[in-house]
Amino acid sequence: MQTTFTEDQLKDPSVARSNEILRACVHCGFCTATCPTYQVLGDELDSPRGRIYLIKDMLENNRVPDAKTVKHIDRCLSCLACMTTCPSGVHYMHLVDHARAYIDKNYQRPLTDRLLRAVLARILPYPNRFRLALLAAKIASPFKGMMPDPRLKAMLEMVPKQIPPVSCNDDPQSFAPQSPQKKRVALMTGCAQKALNTDINDATIRLLTRLGCEVVVAEGAGCCGALTHHMGREDESHATAAKNIRAWNAEITNKGLDAIVINTSGCGTTVKDYGHMFRNDPLAAEAAQVSQRAMDISELLMQLDLPMGSDKDLTVAYHAACSLQHGQQIKTHPKTLLKRVGFKVVEPADSHLCCGSAGTYNLMQPEISGELKARKVKTLEAKSPDLIAAGNIGCMMQIGSATDLPIVHTVELLDWATGGPQPPALSAESRPYTGVPILR
Ligand code: SF4
Ligand code: SF4
Questions:
Q1: CA torsion angle 298 347 193 414 (round to 10)
Q2: Same structural domain for residues 257 and 327?
Q3: End-to-end alpha carbon distance in the chain
Q4: Which domain holds residue 130?
Q5: Does the C-beta of 51 come closer than 6 Å to ligand 1?
Q6: Looking at residues 379-405, what average pLDDT do you find?
Q7: Strands across the sheet with 173-175, in order?
Q8: Ligand 1, closest atom to CA 85?
Q9: Whole-structure pTM over 0.85, yes or no?
């Protein structure tokens, strides 16, 4: 694609990067076939190619974003299916991230939009605030039908039935290996996940220490910054990311780290991109060190000696989170690991398509998100599994809100199959979602 940025414009490193990306696009349109929003809405402007044209026009002309451009960029899930499909290697993620930051700086959103976005940015990344908000939302949920805005209704509908107590495992500390030490790793305990589901980090720590890892929860590390990054709120996302970079670099300098392990794939995609996000920052070298060490839990487990297991007589429908399969290009590890410990694994049709969760997307775009959720649940249930597994809390909340099947994190099943307790979500009493117990 030809571009017409001036030399002056290209002095801005973000514009220079977007120029490179735009020039790689050959307009072939292959990406439209796998774009969930194009499949739902059928509008070229809601396809990757359409959005690329809108972004090019906005950036080249240095213009104030118009409402139409913002609408179509906002409707993008950042699922990155288009990057998996594109034969020209167009790095759509960096392009849309730049467009979102540009919109945030140059566009005045309607008041309700600004308020909602500000509230989400000030609550979701902070586990204690988020916990309080969940409790308040639980009280308000009987009145969800009276909400004047569908986004407020969507927020109340996503509140889980149970809010778990705080887990002290998420506090800064070090967990000793339970077998001869193989690695020293830092676990990213996250933000929203700590308020929504503490079983995932608990299972991760049990499994990794059993397999010979010292697991460190670093002092000062927290939210990865993805939630605000995807809203275009660059200053906020960089501030939280910088705290992580400093915290993990202190561990690297102090005792060394073989890996920084992430069990929320949406966060993993962002942490792996810190090197790019901070490329022009004084923290560039430290950020690159963090990105080099960042690993999804499934990547690390492939390097450890996970014991083989006998047949569990349970069929697991594996939901591939977009951030794992497209953002990090990890497609087979979770399925390989689940089969290795004895589960039968099935996959839904159109497994490349997003479930509609996508960070705050299900709250800000409830109609498109609802349609994608219904399609995803239908394809998962069509496989008649005993349960569903996924590697991202956002997907678990989204899918779990629309099915009676239990849904757990992949790592909880791997922990259970290798000596850990049964995942609490599989027992009738403690399941966070509705449904029946599945254990035979
Ligand atoms: S990131 Fe997903 S929703 Fe956005 S343009 Fe690409 S495929 Fe479509
Ligand atoms: S598939 Fe790639 S090259 Fe083709 S239109 Fe989409 S982004 Fe451009």
A1: -50
A2: no
A3: 58
A4: 111-157
A5: yes
A6: 96
A7: 173-175, 213-217, 183-188, 259-262, 294-296
A8: 7
A9: yes
Ligand index nearest the alpha carbon of residue 90: 2
Burial string for 319-339 (b: 16+ CB within 10 Å, else e) reads bbbbbbbbbbebeebbbebbe
- Is residue 57 located within the same domain as residue 151? no
Instruction: Answer yes or no: is the C-beta of 220 below 6 A from any ligand 2 atom.
Output: no
Is-contact 401 324, C-beta < 8 A?
no
Question: What average pLDDT does the chain have?
Answer: 94
- pLDDT value at position 429? 54
The protein residue with its alpha carbon nearest to ligand 2, atom 8, reads 25
Ligand 1 within 6 A of CB of 400: no
**Structure-block tokens of residue 78:** 């950042």
pLDDT of residue 431: 44
Q: Tell me: the pLDDT tens digits for 147-181?
A: 888 888 888 888 888 888 899 999 999 999 999 99
408 inside domain? yes
HSE at residue 273, side-chain half, CA atoms within 13 A, is: 21
Alpha carbon nearest to ligand 2 atom 2, residue: 86
- Taking each helix axis as running N to C, give the angle between helix 199-210 and helix 410-417, from 0 to 180 degrees, rounded to the nearest 10: 40
| Max intra-chain CA distance, the chain | 68
Nearest to 222 by CA among 255, 258, 253, 246: 246
In a domain, 438, yes or no: no
Whether the per-residue pLDDT at 94 is higher than 70: the answer is: yes
Task: Calculate how far, in angstroms, residue 241's C-alpha sits from the geometric centre of ligand 2.
Answer: 30
